[in-house]
Design goal:
Tubby-like_C; 2 helices; LOR_sf; mainly beta; 12 strands; Porin; twelve-stranded antiparallel β-barrel; LOR
């Protein structure tokens, strides 16, 4: 398990919210190929069982957009597929106008994506790099070389059910917008399913 340094100020395109920005490092549990399997809504939780956000995407609009809400059902952002982009890209936008872009870059080995947004707390431009092998569910999300999150197939915890190939884990640094990280994972999963 990775130990990630906390971010000060908090990192994310939305105002810091105690339900989305954890004061300590957390690990999210993600289901892979959710929409290709069912098209149903699904919940993103921490390995401790706390609900972070919910993702709503109907089968008919699976290639269109997905709405992310908090545990109380308030809209956080909508993730839209940018259809005319050369390589698969997504745009996330919240009801109050905060947004982010996820851009895919073609590479021979593994995959690379960038995620761009204006950090809500200090208004600085941010470009996260996502590098790794998405097929294998091992990747890292960094900002200027500093680790923001690690995506991994395995999580060493006796409470986990071993052998669940439909699950992967995302360890996220403290004070990082967890819904943003969940949105990045859903976008990358969707892109991988289409390729």
């Amino acid at each position: 398990m990775h130990n990630l340094a906390p971010f000060t100020p908090p990192l994310g395109p939305q105002p810091p919210n105690p339900h989305l920005y954890a004061p300590k490092q957390v690990t999210l549990q993600m289901k892979e190929k959710v929409f290709s399997l069912s098209g149903d809504d699904f919940t993103v939780k921490t390995t401790e069982g706390m609900t972070v956000c919910q993702c709503h995407g109907k089968l008919l609009s699976v290639r269109d957009k997905k709405k992310f809400t908090d545990a109380a059902g308030n809209e956080l952002f909508t993730l839209k597929n940018k259809t005319f982009a050369i390589s698969k890209s997504f745009h996330g936008e919240s009801p109050n106008g905060h947004g982010f872009e996820i851009k895919g870059h073609l590479k021979l080995m593994g995959s690379k994506s960038t995620v761009e947004f204006v950090n809500e707390v200090d208004k600085s431009p941010v470009e996260l790099e996502v590098k790794g092998d998405w097929m294998d569910r091992s990747a890292s999300i960094t900002w200027g070389g500093r680790p923001v999150a690690h995506i991994n197939r395995s999580y060493f915890n006796v409470r986990e059910i071993f052998g669940d190939k439909q699950t992967y884990f995302v360890t996220v640094a403290a004070n990082v917008d967890l819904s943003l990280i969940a949105g990045i994972c859903v976008a990358l999963d969707e892109r991988e399913n289409e390729e």
